[in-house]
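Weekly sync, protein design subgroup
Attendees: M.S., D.O., the rotation student, P.L. (late)

Item 1: inverse folding check
M.S. brought a backbone from last month's batch and wanted to see whether the design step gives back something sensible before we order anything. D.O. pointed out we never logged the input encoding, so this time it goes straight into the notes. Structure tokens as presented (76 positions):
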């Protein structure tokens, strides 16, 4: 999962970084750095985040793809 997708998923689930941090045990500052691309999203952290959201990698990819298509179709 790319770092930008973490932000898309978190926001799609209506979660703040603080809430995702609480659910995952990952420090909020680490989540912020990951979302900005300053820290790599390790497979272990990705699994932890997806578990906290209650989704699997395939579903995550489908959600991100769908939301990106919606954003592209919106008037600028």
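Designed sequence read out in the meeting:
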């Amino acid at each position: 999962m790319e770092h930008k997708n973490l932000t898309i998923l978190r926001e799609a689930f209506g979660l703040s970084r603080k809430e995702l941090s609480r659910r995952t045990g990952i420090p909020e500052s680490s989540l912020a750095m990951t979302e900005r691309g300053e820290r790599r999203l390790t497979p272990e952290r990705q699994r932890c985040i997806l578990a906290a959201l209650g989704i699997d990698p395939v579903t995550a990819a489908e959600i991100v793809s769908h939301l990106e298509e919606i954003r592209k179709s919106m008037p600028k």
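Discussion: The chain has a mean pLDDT of 94. The helical segments are 3-12, 17-24, 28-35, 43-53, 57-73.
Action: P.L. to compare against the previous round before Friday.
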